[in-house]
Amino acid sequence: MKYLFILLTCLSLRVSAQTQLNFNKGFIESLDKWVAIKTPVDTIYGYGFIYMDVTAGLDSASGWFV
Q1: Angle at 18 between CA 13 and CA 24, to 5 degrees
Q2: Are the C-beta atoms of 32 and 12 separated by less than 8 Å?
């Protein structure tokens, strides 16, 4: 049990979050995926899910986060 705890502790030190968002994909490439949307303000981003609507074509359900 002690070795398992040490192993999990060492592995958790290597876990890190994404530090920078890359805005290099188009809407077609993001179909059926969650996306972050760039705004003119650096600290505010939009988010949304890009999907194909039968009547409207490419569409998104979106919101904002800071």
Answers
A1: 155
A2: no
